[in-house]
Structures are given as structure tokens and as C-alpha cells.
Design brief:
ten-stranded mixed sheet; 12 helices; binds iron/sulfur cluster
């Protein structure tokens, strides 16, 4: 298997890269879209970034919003016609709570678009699970609690939900198919000491990979680091141990447990990635990125409630340049490093390109 997490994937889309700058007339379709089909969720995670008061993400989210069935089918038609490469379903809410998920992914499975989902795994059953197992590229289950009691505390669910999620993942792998099943392990002050044991348990369950990441508790990088500092070294040691003792050909561990940049200040004035990987929210708004979803003041590109996505996308380029990262994005940004790479690529002097 090739590298799953490289930041250079977008460099395989030369036309897209060349279309990005404001002075180029061309508008190319997004490469990848995240769709938040519903804001309804069956869990109440205590650290949920969409509900945390200290994070701008999710500021204007309405919990009961979901994309109507007809609109979702229209969106999928547009994405296919536009040549979008990949769709990831994520929250807002829990994608498997979306009543039309099976129909949506069945339709997607009939196109060339690859698809994936982030989920809590509790409803990974029945037809949606079967279609994902058979046709999706990957599925990632987010986890934190390491047994029934701790999981119930983290997520405001009844004791037994943890066992159900593990069982669902085991059953999912038994379905066969080519879907890569990962777990995202969100590390905080309560579960850091379980990193190794929990990762071993997940390996026994049969998942293909575990990504170990820090819980983001604030827009402020220094505040995040202060939160993780008391246990950071010991948690990191356990993550390293997990990699050295548990990872093998059939079980991948991605250690993404790291401190965050002290400040989230950005010096660049336009964002390439919002044209590469935008978000369609359950409110039928299009947002710039995962980090600004449901932020109507700073993250909104426009609405597709009264127009088709493709008409919105191709209807003028100005909307892609209203967000000035140096002004509006001084918070965590998952695309920051990738933005820098793209901007660096685009800044190359044409006269000197040959001198590689
Ligand atoms: S710079 Fe980052 S946070 Fe700002 S719009 Fe782009 S991807 Fe989003």
C-alpha cells in the first residue's frame, strides 16, 4: 500500500493547481468534497469540536439540520458531472444518522467518485455498512473511551455502546470488501495512559489502522499545548511503543500526536485549499473548509439551497477570495501546510522553471 497521509496528493492534479489563482479565468471542480449530511448525532461527546464554546468551528450549527433527500441526490449528480474525485461524509452530526445514507452511497457507488466516512461506528450496521464494506475506500471510527464505562462517560451514552461499536467493527471486517477500516484515537488527559493497551485491543478487533491524535481544546495553540503538557511526554512514549510493537504489514499506526503550533498566525492572503476541498453543510451552505464549517461570518462561501452546486461553483471566482487567511484564519487549520506547499508551487518563477 502506498502512502495514505502524504500532503502531496494534490500535486497529481496539475490542471486544478494551475486553475487556482485569481488571475486565471478557469474554474476547475473541487478534487474532494466533504458532505455533512446531518447535524443530528446519537452521541454527546464532551469534547465535540462542534459544540465547544472555545472553538469558532460549529459556531452557527443548527442541530436538527439535514440535507433533504432530493437535494442530496442532485448534489451527487452534480459532483459526478463535474468530475469530483472523492467525497467524505462527516459531522456536524453522525453521518449514519442520516436517513438517506444508504440511498446516497448506493448512488455514489454507481459513479466513478470514491467515497469514505468519519463515524462513531454505533450505527455501522445493515445496508449502509454493507455498501461501505463493498464500495467505500475507507471508513474511520473516532474513539476515546477504552471500555464500556469510560466510553459512556466520554459520550453521554449508555454503558454497552463501546462493546457495540467494537462488535460493529468486527462484523464490518467480516463482510469482506475492500474498505480500509481505521480508528481515530483522540488523546486527552483521561485516556492517554490507555494508548498502548487500547491500540492492541483494536488490532485484535481487526481494524486496519489507528491514527493517534491530540484532542484540540482551544482556538489558541499555546492553550492546547498547556493542556497536553502534563502528560505529553508519557503519551508520546506510549504512541511510539505502540508503533514499534504493534504495527505490521496488516496493521498501520499513524502517530499524529504532536504539539500544535504556538500561534496559528498565517501570512498568506488567499487560501488554495478552499477550492480543492470545500464543505457542503447540512444547512446547504458551502463552507471553505473543515475548520470553518458552520461559521457564517468567516467560513461561508455561499448557499446552494436555491441553486445547484455546480451552478454555484462555476458562477464566478470572487467568492473563493473573500477569506483572507492572514485576517480570518488565525486558528487551527488542517490545510495550513498543504496551502503553503501549493502557494510555493504556484510562486515558482516561470523563467527559471527549467533549472530544477
Ligand atoms: S486557510 Fe485554513 S482555515 Fe482558512 S479557509 Fe483556508 S483551509 Fe480554512
Amino acid at each position: 500500500m502506498g502512502s495514505l497521509y502524504t500532503k502531496l496528493k494534490v500535486f497529481h492534479y496539475q490542471h486544478k493547481l494551475d486553475s487556482l489563482p485569481v488571475e486565471v479565468d478557469d474554474i476547475a471542480p473541487p478534487v474532494h468534497i466533504r458532505i455533512k449530511p446531518t447535524n443530528v448525532c446519537n452521541h454527546r461527546c464532551r469534547y465535540c469540536a462542534y459544540r465547544a464554546a472555545d472553538l469558532q468551528l460549529g459556531k452557527d450549527m443548527v442541530d436538527k439540520d439535514f440535507i433533504p433527500r432530493e437535494k442530496m441526490l442532485e448534489i451527487i449528480d452534480d459532483l459526478e458531472q463535474m468530475g469530483v474525485q472523492a467525497v467524505t461524509f462527516s459531522g456536524g452530526g453522525e453521518p449514519f444518522c442520516y436517513p438517506y445514507l444508504a440511498e446516497t452511497v448506493r448512488k455514489l457507488a454507481g459513479t466513478a467518485i470514491r467515497f469514505a466516512a468519519l463515524t462513531n461506528g454505533a450505527l455501522l450496521e445493515g445496508e449502509p455498512a454493507e455498501i461501505f464494506a463493498e464500495r467505500a475506500t475507507w471508513l474511520r471510527v473516532s474513539m476515546d473511551g477504552w471500555d464500556d464505562e469510560s466510553y459512556a462517560r466520554y459520550r453521554g451514552v449508555k454503558v454497552g455502546e463501546f462493546s457495540r461499536v467494537l462488535r460493529n467493527m468486527e462484523d464490518f471486517k467480516r463482510l469482506g470488501g475492500g474498505c480500509f477500516l481505521g480508528v481515530s484515537l483522540i488523546v486527552d488527559e483521561e485516556n492517554w495512559s490507555e494508548i498502548f493497551n487500547f491500540t492492541r485491543r483494536l488490532k485484535e478487533v481487526g481494524v486496519d489502522s489507528v491514527k493517534i491524535s491530540p484532542c484540540v481544546v482551544s482556538n489558541d495553540g499555546a492553550k492546547n499545548n498547556r493542556y497536553h503538557q502534563p502528560f505529553f511526554d508519557r503519551a508520546k512514549e506510549l504512541a511510539r511503543l505502540a508503533v514499534s510493537e504493534l504495527a505490521d504489514e496488516g496493521f498501520e499506526i499513524f502517530d499524529a500526536y504532536h504539539s500544535l503550533a504556538e500561534t496559528f498566525v498565517k501570512e498568506y492572503r488567499w487560501c488554495p485549499y478552499l477550492q480543492i476541498l470545500p464543505i457542503i453543510g447540512a444547512d446547504m451552505n458551502v463552507y471553505s473548509c473543515q475548520d470553518k464549517a458552520y461559521n457564517l461570518d468567516e467560513g461561508l462561501l455561499g448557499s446552494i439551497e436555491q441553486q445547484r452546486f455546480r451552478d454555484f461553483w462555476y458562477g464566478g471566482k470572487e467568492k473563493f477570495f473573500r477569506i483572507d487567511p492572514a485576517v480570518h484564519c488565525n486558528h487551527h487549520c488542517v490545510a495550513n501546510e498543504k496551502n503553503r506547499l501549493v502557494l510555493d508551487y504556484l510562486a515558482a518563477d516561470a523563467e527559471h522553471l527549467g533549472f530544477v
